[in-house]
Amino acid sequence: MQKPSLPKGTRDFGTIQMARRNYILDTIKGTFQLFGYNQIETPAMENLSTLTGKYGDEGDQLLFKILNSGDYLKNVAAEDLQNGYKQTLAKVSEKGLRYDLTVPFARFVVMNRNDLTFPFKRFQIQPVWRADRPQKGRYREFYQCDADVVGTDSLLCEAEIILMIRSVFEKLKLNDYSIKLNNRKILTGISEAIGEAGKEGPLCVAIDKLDKIGWEKVKEELIERGFAADSIEKLTPLVKLEADQPGKLAFLKEFLSSSEIGLQGVSELEEVFQILESMGENLDFVELDIMLARGLSYYTGAIFEVKVNHVSIGSVSGGGRYDNLTGVFGLSGMSGVGFSFGVDRLYDVLEELDLFPEDSVQSTKILLTHFDQKAFVYALGLLKKFREAGIKAELYPDISKMKKQLDFADKKAIPYVGICGDSEIEANEIALKNLETGEQESVSLEEAIARLK
């Protein structure tokens, strides 16, 4: 008999894990809705023509391809196989599993643009798939929680992203984290200021690895990418800069004085901070990080990355402004900004910090127990009334010893047991037992409902 197994990089979620995941998802969803975002969903699969070319060569390699139905080799000739997988792929696979939620969202906007009200605010909570090498914190199937606004270049959107992140983290009891913020225009200005105009792409790819490999290794990579030694040395003051927010902004204004686009990026950051101040908000947990780059090439303005301090997990949220993501699908000039929470990483962080509330795994509030068939029938009538009152209740389904029923409630972390016996039936009451304290008292149904509520 074959032993059952899971594909590498995927996981089952049991009842406790699902309850905890829903605690995170409900917190995020409620925050998105509070800020005026509406939910959409897109299919698990997209046409490969939609997905390819949007994530770079490395991203294309990580796409899960879906074989065509039926005889998928019928159009493949011997010479196709000799010419390599790319020529063969086009004939055996037309679809793939989505790699992220952003590109499908851009496709959705273009296809439904006549029915949408712009600016369009949407959130999406769905799984994505990447044919990556599985390791801690990195899975082949995982959930993303995206929120995007398209159809406006107002920097109010960036300010509200900061507020949404802080709101979610406050509700999850996370109080030691950094919302790292930068602007791609600043990085473009830096490439101009160091004498490497037009090379902001490779510059971003290299310095995006700064936290992982350090400045010396980043310098080696920049040399390999064709950056001059004196240009790299001009970056050193930026890498080594230690200053508060006003100090960093002042330094950037001087460093980027010859770059119009760089100064525009600084001005946009200042405007975001000013919007927050006008809303009566502060800059708690917000850190201007001049070296924050984020690898995705479609970002054109503000970029975000959120890290929880003193945990083993990397970033748990990120995003940024993009000016023309829908352009590849024929709708140009549609500016937008968005960000994503990594649910799986947030789960690992809360678990590592032991921050899941005890009641997050509680599915049932009271278990009705009984001694015999007469008590079972009596409990049936109570069960309906508990549920009508909005109390999560269940009835032990078998006629069993009371100890077995109490053990069942204990293993399921059900906090209360309602015991139904002859005396309770005669008095039209229920013996309410608190399993945590051991206290037990016979009360009326109305009193039991009031206590449990």
From TrEMBL:
It catalyses: tRNA(His) + L-histidine + ATP = L-histidyl-tRNA(His) + AMP + diphosphate + H(+). Signal peptide: none annotated. GO terms for cellular component: cytoplasm. Residues 21-397 form the Aminoacyl-transfer RNA synthetases class-II family profile domain. InterPro entries: aa-tRNA-synth_II, aa-tRNA-synth_II/BPL/LPL, Anticodon-bd, Anticodon-bd_dom_sf, His-tRNA-ligase, HisRS-like_core, HisRS/HisZ, HisRS_anticodon. GO terms for molecular function: ATP binding; histidine-tRNA ligase activity. Its EC number is 6.1.1.21. It is found in: Cytoplasm. The keyword Flavoprotein does not apply. It is an enzyme of class 6 (ligase). One of its GO terms (biological process) is histidyl-tRNA aminoacylation. Keywords: Aminoacyl-tRNA synthetase, ATP-binding, Cytoplasm, Ligase, Nucleotide-binding, Protein biosynthesis. L-histidine binds at residues 100-102, 130, 144, 148, 294, 298-299. It comes from the Bacteria. PROSITE patterns: AA_TRNA_LIGASE_II. The keyword Ligase applies. Belongs to the class-II aminoacyl-tRNA synthetase family. Homodimer. This is Histidine--tRNA ligase. The lineage of its organism: Bacteria, Pseudomonadati, Bacteroidota, Cytophagia, Cytophagales.
